[in-house]
Specification:
Layout (H helix, E strand, L loop, with lengths): L4 E12 L3 E12 L3 E5 L6 H8 L7 E6 L2 E2 L5 H11 E4 L11 H6 L9 H14 L15 H13 L5 E5 L7 H16 L3 E6 L2 H5 L3 E6 L2 E5 H9 L8 H4 L3
Parallel strand pairs: 3-8, 3-9, 6-7, 7-8
Antiparallel strand pairs: 1-2, 1-4, 4-5, 9-10
Helix pairs in contact: 4-5, 5-6
């Protein structure tokens, strides 16, 4: 079966006032079921790529397609609907509401999906249980460890069953043990069919994933999948969403 592209960048570039070129004619395809790292130092362009892949920004030139939609052809409301339906975000600093318990924070991930309040909370509890936090439903962020906060954030990202999970430095605010647990959770989610893209500056994390796309000065300087397809090693297994949604 031919893999399905969930994200495509074709000659995608992003420039800002003053002649700042954050991204230079990037070509990148992410296929359904992939687990990959977008890696590079600060200022390399990886955050700009995240914003384009997550439809948080539009390219200055070139084409960006997400789950088959050309983002330049969608209105702001259309992009919001696309994000609510198909994309989950996990950030380094969690972005949890301080005065709200874990269930409420996760249920907020369905605010723009038109889901009734009772169903939002039921699905939030299910998502928390799946990341091992069914004993933390009523706890607020200040009652949770860093690793637990990140698992709440992952549950919030996944409560809407997105096709793509974009994790921006997901272990950056965690100790090494908590970070290892979060990465293992991301691997488990990917094994169940979710496409996972980890944006990181950490080479150790990047090298632990099946595919590494390395950026420098706004351009891709290497892509391990491209090397694999020339015969140096086997490419990553692509898992369909219908094959493994059991987590």
């Amino acid at each position: 079966m031919t893999p399905t592209a969930v994200i495509e960048l074709r000659d995608a570039a992003k420039s800002y006032a003053g002649g700042v070129h954050a991204l230079r004619e990037v070509n990148l395809t992410v296929e359904e079921g992939e687990l990959l790292a977008v890696v590079g130092p600060s200022g390399s362009g990886k955050s700009t790529v995240l914003n384009l892949m997550g439809t948080l920004d539009r390219p200055t030139s070139g084409v960006v397609r997400v789950t088959g939609y050309d983002v330049s052809e969608l209105s702001d409301s259309g992009l919001s609907a696309l994000r609510a339906r198909d994309i989950g975000f996990v950030f380094q600093h969690f972005h949890l509401a301080a005065g709200r318990d874990a269930v409420s924070n996760v249920a907020d991930g369905l605010l723009y999906a038109g889901v009734p309040v009772k169903e939002r909370r039921a699905r939030a509890k299910e998502a928390l249980a799946k990341v091992g936090l069914d004993h933390r439903f009523t706890h607020t962020p200040n009652e949770l460890s860093g690793g637990e906060k990140q698992r709440v954030a992952i549950a919030r990202a996944l409560v809407g069953n997105p096709r793509v999970l974009l994790a921006d430095e997901p272990t950056g605010a965690l100790d090494s043990a908590s970070g290892a647990l979060v990465m293992e959770l991301l691997r488990e989610l990917n094994a169940c069919g979710t496409t996972v893209c980890v944006i990181t500056h950490d080479n150790e994390i990047a090298n632990s994933l099946p595919r590494q796309v390395r950026f420098k000065d706004g351009a891709i300087v290497s892509d391990s999948r491209a090397r694999a397809r020339t015969g140096s090693s086997a490419g990553p297994r692509v898992v369909s969403r219908t094959e493994g949604r059991g987590w």
